[in-house]
Amino acid sequence: MADTDDDTDPYAVVRADDALRPLYEEHGELGPERADDPFERLVVAVTNQSVSLESAAAVRERLRERVDFDPDSLRAADDATLRDVGLSDTKVRALRELAERYPEGIAHADFEGLTNDEVRAELGDVYGVGDWTANMFLLFALGREDVFPVGDLGVRKGMATLYGHETRAEMRAYAEAWAPYRSYATRYVWKAQ
User: Fold this and answer.
1) What distance in Å separates the CA atoms of residue 105 and residue 56, rounded to the nearest whole number?
2) What's the CATH number of domain 12-32+147-191, 1.10.940.10, 2.60.120.200, 1.10.565.10, 1.10.1670.40?
3) 79 Cβ partners below 8 Å, 6+ apart?
4) CA-to-CA distance for 65 and 105, rounded, in angstroms?
5) Cα–Cα 20 to 30 A to 189, which of 87, 153, 165, 180?
6) Measured at the alpha carbon of residue 51, what is the angle toward residues 66 and 158, in degrees to the nearest 5?
7) Which CATH architecture best describes the domain 38-140?
8) How confident is the model at residue 3 (pLDDT cuts 50, 70, 90)?
């Protein structure tokens, strides 16, 4: 990977990486996203856990047909309704706990001033919410710029394809070169799988 002198352009780390540059040229600017409704995005992250993209999309669509992605609606829905759309017992419990923990939803301000690790720890207190879900929340709800979700299968596949890395330690070590913009690089790594 080539060095870059531009510390303010998050895409500089992507363009400087010989393996990521063609993906940048093909897909344009990809990066973290700041969701309008962070609670809704957290619900999406929970529904996406441990399933294929296609399965997750189908479950989300069925869930949206029956329940709004807000705390009140999730508390009001019975377990059978949530299970009928394809949610596991673990995901049903996680959504219920999130609705209880954040009865008014989530505002971006609720997490301002917290480090990524502090956000992971807070969300990790909820049953069924682990590092993967917290990382997806950091990337796609809060729009954090320096997240590298090495626990994600797509990231591991992309890193193996692009760099031949086999272990998470190798992947983390390589990703250090992308700091403080690892979220941007991650979006292109996903495109390589």
Assistant:
1) 22
2) 1.10.1670.40
3) 92
4) 20
5) 87
6) 135
7) Orthogonal Bundle (1.10)
8) very low
